[in-house]
Amino acid sequence: MNQVPEIKLNAFTLEELPEIAQQLIEAIGNHKVVAFYAEMGVGKTTLIKQLCNQLKVIDNIQSPTFSIVNEYVTQDNKKIYHFDFYRIENELEAYDIGVEDYLYSGNLCFIEWPEKIVGLLPKNCLKINIQTLINNKRKITIEE
To answer: In Å, how far from its chain's centre is CA 7?
Structure first.
């Protein structure tokens, strides 16, 4: 397994998101499960939308807050799963929707609120932490 170095990226404006997303895609590499850790309103969904745009998703990209999971298809017919576990009460709810089938499908999975399903995450899950700094700046840290 490749060791992912810790990477720190700062995004100053929404206009810089495409460049930040491209750097993140390179860092994601062959990882299939990517967990996004951040407080409410920091920009997890916005960042995931930009990642999906960079990966050439042809579907409408939106938050799966109420559906828990959205499935997107790329131009080259690959699937990407986007999860939002904010509204679940426990891991059993995620297990009941078949989350393990998604996580081990070999398709790319982006997860918001992964702390709600920590016991179900694969060991090789890539973690992306997003923090708000002063002046609406974001610090993005990647770790394995």
So the answer is: 16
In a domain, 72, yes or no: yes
Residue 56 lies in a domain: yes
Is 71 a member of any domain?
yes
71: enclosing H helix or E strand: strand 69-73
Count of domains forming the chain: 1
Residue 3 has pLDDT above 60, yes or no: no
**Separation between Cα atoms, residue 47 and residue 20, nearest integer Å:** 9
16 found inside a domain: yes
Pairing mode, strands 108-112 and 69-73: unpaired
What is the per-residue pLDDT across 79-99, written as a single tens digit (0 to 9) for each?
Answer: 999 999 999 999 999 999 999
| Largest distance between two CA atoms of the chain | 41
Helix (H) or strand (E) holding 108: strand 108-112
At residue 101, the pLDDT reads 96
DSSP secondary structure letter of residue 42: S
